[in-house]
Amino acid sequence: MTTAHHLPAGKAASGAHAVDVTPESAGWGYSSLKVLELPSGGWHSFDTGDSEWIVLPLSGSCTVAVGGDTFRLHGRDSVFSGVSDFAYVPRDAQVSIASRDGGRFALTGARCERRLPARYAPASSVPVELRGTGNCSRQVNNFGAAGVFECDKLIAVEVITPGGNWSSFPPHKHDEHRPGQESELEEIYYFEFAAHEGTPGLGYQRVSPSGHGTGTDVLAEVRDGDVVLIPDGWHGPSMAVPGHDMYYLNVMAGPDPDRAWLICDHPDHAWIRDTWPAQPVDPRLPLYTAPEKP
Q1: In this structure, is residue 281 part of a structural domain?
Q2: What is the pLDDT of residues 157-211, one digit of tens each?
Q3: FRET pair for 244, CA 20 to 30 Å: which of 52, 62, 164, 180?
Q4: Domain tally for the chain?
Q5: Domain with 209 in it: what CATH number?
Q6: Are residues 129 and 139 in contact, defined by beta-carbon separation less than 8 angstroms?
Q7: What is the mean pLDDT of residues 258-262?
């Protein structure tokens, strides 16, 4: 196994960014992730270049200025406290992010061709999905999912897995372009964990070779701020240790002409889906729901 695809907290840091993953640093063509940390009264400007971006508060609030638009993001206290609003900014633009009280903000990006308009999306617009049952129960906040929010290439969602549960299971892949069956998508996992009485949480992430691409093979112990890069391969399970809820942010993009999330389950484990109807969803979920639309 290789550790090249597991980036422990700090390894991918650069300047104001606690995480700075670009297509160049990842060795692929499309997906990016930056985690921007701003102090009280802090601000940061950047050029979007050839990529579209979603600015998503992880903790705290901010304003996002792009072109003649300014979007006020109310944000949240943490990824475990609620759904957040967000802003979309297009390629070929200058963006400024400012925060009165400080915070941490994810910039999920993808190289793209179309220049779509800048937009604000309220937290009430985010579909919260419960996926799986039993100890495979997890919550998915589909803020930037295909078919939910329009982008050119970017797909981004949040997943919350209660302590002791498995998510990204059954293992699945999306590393081949098979129209109507499977998408070709690079993927980034960014992790955070709920502490218990001051003790930090942790989890485990598996990626195994699928026979396509580079043969990605990872078994990593992941903690707050860690990143796992998945250019190809079967990914899953993502395992949350008992007592510590696990959060991960997924960023995906690829070369397919259609923006879609089509996956292929690992044939050895696909049967687990057939057991879900006979089990209840973990009663700890949903951890929270999106606020009602005004």
Answers
A1: no
A2: 999 999 999 999 999 999 999 999 999 999 999 999 999 999 999 999 999 999 9
A3: 62
A4: 1
A5: 2.60.120.10
A6: yes
A7: 98
Asked whether residue 169 is domain-assigned, the answer is yes
Is 101 among the domain residues? yes
User: Which domain does 207 fall in, by range?
Assistant: 6-275
Residue with tokens 């903000």: 105
Asked whether the whole model's pTM tops 0.90, one would answer yes
DSSP string, the chain: --STTEE-TTTT-BTTEEEEE-HHHHTSSSEEEEEEEE-TTEEEEEE-TTEEEEEEEEEEEEEEEETTEEEEEEEES-TTT----EEEE-SS-EEEEEESS-EEEEEEEEE-S--PPPEEE-GGG--EEEE--GGG-EEEEEEE-TTTS--SS-EEEEEEE-TT-EES-S-EE-EEEETTTEEE-EEEEEEEE--BTTBPP-EEEEEE--SSTT---EEEEE-TT-EEEESSSEEEEEEEPTT--EEEEEEEE-S-SS-----EE-TTTGGGGGGGGGSPPPTT--S--PPPP-
Looking at residue 103, its pLDDT comes to: 98
